[in-house]
Amino acid sequence: MRGSEMRRRAPEFRRQSRRRLPGWIWWLVGIFLLVGLMLFVIHHNQKEQFRPPIVNKGSETEEVFHEKVNFTEELLSSTSFARQLADQMTLAKAYVILAKEHGNLQLAWELSSQIRNCQRLLSEVAVSGRSITQEEAHPIITRLARLIYKAQDSHYDISTTIVTLKSHALALEERAKAAVVQTAEFGQLAAESLPKNLHCLTVKLTEQWLQNTKLRSLSEEHRNSTRLVDNNLYHFCIFSDNVLATSVVVNSTVSNANHPQQLVFHVVTDRIHYGAMSTWFLMNDFKGCTVEVRCIDEFPWLNAASSPLVRRLSEMETKGYYYGGLKTPEREIKFHNPKFVSLLNHLRFYIPQILPNLEKVIFLDDDVVVQKDLTQLFSIELHGNVIGAVETCLESFHRYHKYLNFSQPIISSKIDPHTCGWAFGMNIFDLIAWRKANATALYHYWEEQNMDQLLWRTGTLPAGLLTFYGLMEPLDRRWHVLGLGYDVDIDDRLIESAAVVHYNGNMKPWLKLAIRRYKSIWERSAMRWVMRFVSLTHACNFAVCCNVSLCCPKDSKRP
Ligand SMILES: *[C@@H]1O[C@H](CO)[C@@H](O)[C@H](O)[C@H]1NC(C)=O
Ligand SMILES: *[C@@H]1O[C@H](CO)[C@@H](O)[C@H](O)[C@H]1NC(C)=O
Ligand SMILES: *[C@@H]1O[C@H](CO)[C@@H](O)[C@H](O)[C@H]1NC(C)=O
Ligand SMILES: *[C@@H]1O[C@H](CO)[C@@H](O)[C@H](O)[C@H]1NC(C)=O
Ligand SMILES: *[C@@H]1O[C@H](CO)[C@@H](O)[C@H](O)[C@H]1NC(C)=O
Ligand SMILES: *[C@@H]1O[C@H](CO)[C@@H](O)[C@H](O)[C@H]1NC(C)=O
């Protein structure tokens, strides 16, 4: 019945619309012609692309190698399906934002689900190294095109478009900056060179530490506090050599906590920054919370015999690996930078040893800002897992195969390449489960396997993905929003709703390079410091400032 009714009505509808909008037909015809032309060109090109290897290279192995498609080239090629999909996806993402702004959640939802399909296809193809076929691409391209058309047509008037374009122009400017920064060498150098005045602050604070014996005995007293081992309180750990950044993390955490006095921070730094860090946290009160500062040299168990990483670092040091002893291509600067392999960065794998009496702890990177009360994280059920983290494969291709070398049988035999990646930076750790699972031993195992850096090149995340494989509990993604150090296009509402925002990437908020849009969030928690700091720099004579000897607590007892 219904079918026949519809059939009866359909012609009327069609006739009506033809009468009203004759221009549409022309549009449709035009689009069909265009698509037809594109398909022809693509088909033609694909045939041509496959010819050269057969002509040029005789051996069969070469041919096999060439058939494995280079995904980067595929994305850059103007005719490939991958490129078309990627372009459409970008447009669709813009319209998701617009649709949400207009409260059209249905459209936003439809667009998002097509974007996800598109990402899934791209990710599959990236793993398998083949190119996308027309049969795979066609339905997604058609559906996306239809939705984009719907979005363009039905909702967004010219003024919206102008506003959007304006904000895009701003974003473009930032992106141009980002593009420069992302190029390996420059970005790395720029990110590494700490602003002079920040360095000066450290020196000033260290000077105070050395001159003021009261500060040192006060710090000794604090070390005996029972609060540091009280499992009824909320414990956080931060491993950093940046006084200002650590201060912002602590300040933003306590400022948003319902009961700041119940928070305990365990800061571990290196011997160079120990004095400055201690002085800063003794001089400033952060709403009555407890801050313990320790020096990495205090841990006798962290030595070359027990830790493969320490062994590798000391081997590298003797080889002069970092500072030009080895001839390395310039673009590999990043991989030989001490910061990337620094011990402080890897301390996250030793949290149960650092805090032997504790049961649960939140780990925070020094480039985050906290915006909500984090104590609720302590009551989240981890289901026996060791670590709680937000997953990162929703918006892009961040699956395990992106971080690890799956050509290595030791990886491919144990790990599923499609496992969703996750992020360090704001994590809850169940230290009881950790000890039970021997996670530190697992970490040592993987570091041993990676002595020649064939499993992964650098960084702590690949090691973390392996160590906590199958031991990770996914958290709601609003707990931890990433990318404020490189992504200029993050949705404002996502940032607002985030419990923690993370400036991962080269454009740290304390550098000139910082992305303007996000800088104020960080500065809000550093305001008083900024004011003090300005007056400090005037008084600071660099030559004199830097003439101080640096030491850890055990050294300071000696004289
Ligand atoms: C893929 O293509 C890009 C750009 O042409 C090139 O830089 C890269 O080295 C290629 N990768 C492989 C694995 O061939
Ligand atoms: C802290 O404890 C240690 C031993 O646990 C003790 O030797 C030291 O005197 C104590 N320091 C203070 C300031 O109470
Ligand atoms: C953890 O390691 C210890 C010593 O290395 C070993 O005795 C114990 O059996 C291990 N536990 C598990 C669950 O692997
Ligand atoms: C990945 O492993 C293969 C096989 O051992 C090796 O030839 C290749 O160099 C590794 N890739 C990287 C980037 O280390
Ligand atoms: C902590 O943050 C508040 C604003 O939330 C700011 O007024 C204060 O100066 C900051 N304190 C320090 C020591 O940075
Ligand atoms: C640095 O310190 C040394 C010894 O402590 C002293 O001899 C030297 O004059 C100082 N240099 C400056 C620039 O203050």
TrEMBL record:
EC main group: transferase
Membrane topology: Single-pass type II membrane protein
A molecular function GO annotation: polygalacturonate 4-alpha-galacturonosyltransferase activity
Protein name in UniProt: Hexosyltransferase
GO aspect biological process, one term: cell wall organization
Keywords in alphabetical order: Cell wall biogenesis/degradation, Glycoprotein, Glycosyltransferase, Golgi apparatus, Membrane, Signal-anchor, Transferase, Transmembrane, Transmembrane helix
Domain of life: Eukaryota
Transmembrane segments annotated in the record for this chain: 21-42
Similarity comment text for this entry: Belongs to the glycosyltransferase 8 family.
EC number from the UniProt entry: 2.4.1.-
Principal localisation: Golgi
A cellular component annotation (GO) from this entry: Golgi membrane
